[in-house]
Amino acid sequence: MQRKVTRQIRIGAVPVGGSAPISVQSMTNTKTHDVAATVAQIRRLVEAGCDIVRLAVPDMPAAEALFDIKQELPAVPLVADIHFDYRLALASLERGIDALRINPGNIGGNDKVALVVKAAQSRHIPIRIGVNAGSLPADIVAKRGGHPTPEAMVESALRHVRILEEHDFQDIKISLKAHDVPMTIAAYRLMSEAVDYPLHLGITEAGTVTSGVIKSVVGIGAMLAEGIGDTLRISLTGDPVEEVRVGNEILKALGLREYGPVLISCPTCGRCNIDLAGIAAEVEQKLAVIKKPLKIAVMGCVVNGPGEAREADFGIAGGAGQGLVFRKGEIIKRVAEQDLVAELFKEIDKLVVEEEQ
After folding, report:
1. Where does a domain end: 253, 287, 322?
2. CATH code for position 53
3. Are residues 88 and 40 in the same domain?
4. Spatial distance between the Cα atoms of 256 and 209, rounded to a whole number of angstroms
5. What is the DSSP letter of 125?
6. Which NCBIfam families match (predicted)?
7. Does the annotation list 72 as a binding residue?
8. What is the span of the domain harbouring residue 327?
9. Alpha carbon distance 281, 115 (integer Å)
10. For the segment 292-339, what is each residue's pLDDT rounded down to a tens digit?
11. Is 249 annotated as a binding residue?
């Protein structure tokens, strides 16, 4: 797929836009002023494959905590999420934040914007403009029948963009989010045609893990398949680590990122004579700690199993109480069903050791 070419910004050491790989973001749900809890959660996010982490900065104690958080995690790109108060933006910049999420039209007059822009420019810190369908300016919504539309979302975002551009600031990233998937896709399509700033993809208020993942995969996957998007966040109600895992899986499914193993497992049917669901779940859990890009097949019968397993780096194919273990297309051994997972991971461990030598 051909990606839309955008200008590039940097959030810490991570490039966003241009030819840079699409990055995965998440947001902590700890109280930012609780440094220990926030640092612990950020470490979990990074371990899961998160490239950029956003933190809520609703008050000055949260802003002041950013310095200590950065001291603990100097290599992790951190974004301060701020609404309305320019003083929190200034405080966050002074404490070493790597990017701001703030809408310049909502932080006071032109003099307040000038202060934030000057402080960001002097530190080479980008600003993300984030528009949500549920909080668009009343005058823009009124022009379009009193309801949010893709056009209203784009107009609102461009209003903020123009404010920054008037201050000669172009280190900008844009997001346009709604819980409505078709509206979100339409808004990003329009924005992609209107500007060359990098775009941050997301479906906001997507829901719990089940419904939220479906909406995010459909919406974000569709935009990425069209070449739209430079970075993304999956918005789920719950543990943010799940957001990172889903984001990486979307990129892996589209061939846009290699990060950790890809698991192939067949659907169960009447031909299956082993506990395929249990085996696949166990393999998936064990693969979660492996960072090396591998293709792993877990197949349940002799119809498609051996062929699919042969296409994988490693695979297992089951039969009646027993199964085969494959490595790069070659049958290694026949083992009892209860030993399949253990024997599979013995072979994976061997490869890791071989490549480290």
Report:
1. 253
2. 3.20.20.20
3. yes
4. 23
5. -
6. ispG_gcpE (TIGR00612), PRK00366.1 (NF001540)
7. no
8. 262-356
9. 53
10. 888 888 887 656 666 666 678 888 887 777 788 888 878 888 888 888
11. no
Instruction: Based on the fold, state whether residues 243 and 278 are members of the same structural domain.
Output: no
**How far, in Å, CA of 350 to CA of 357, rounded?**
11
3-state secondary structure of 262: strand
Question: Strands 231-233 and 262-265, how do they pair?
Answer: unpaired
What's the predicted TM-score (pTM) here? 0.85
Cβ-contact 91, 64 below 8 angstroms = yes
Question: Is there a single domain that holds both residue 31 and residue 162?
Answer: yes
Alpha helices in 167-275 (DSSP H): 181-194, 209-225, 240-253
Distance from C-alpha of 236 to C-alpha of 212, rounded to nearest angstrom = 6
Structural domain tally of the chain? 2
Q: Is 85 helix (H, G, I), strand (E, B) or coil?
A: coil
- The answer to whether the beta carbons of residues 171 and 200 sit under 8 Å apart is no
Q: Which portions of the chain are predicted below pLDDT 70?
A: 205-207, 268-273, 301-310, 352-357
The response to whether 308 counts as a known ligand-binding position is: yes
266 is in an annotated binding site: yes
Question: Tell me: the pLDDT tens digits for 95-133?
Answer: 999 999 998 877 878 889 999 999 999 999 999 999 988
Q: How far is CA 181 from CA 149, 151, 178, 205, 207, in A?
A: 12, 15, 7, 11, 12
Which residue in the block uniquely carries the two structure tokens 């903020």?
Answer: 160
Q: Secondary structure of the chain: what % helix, strand, coil (to 5)?
A: 45, 20, 35
Task: Decide which of 235, 253, 271 is a domain's last residue.
Answer: 253
For every residue of 144-196, DSSP letters joined together read TTTS--HHHHHHHHHHHHHHHHHTT---EEEEEE-SSHHHHHHHHHHHHHH--
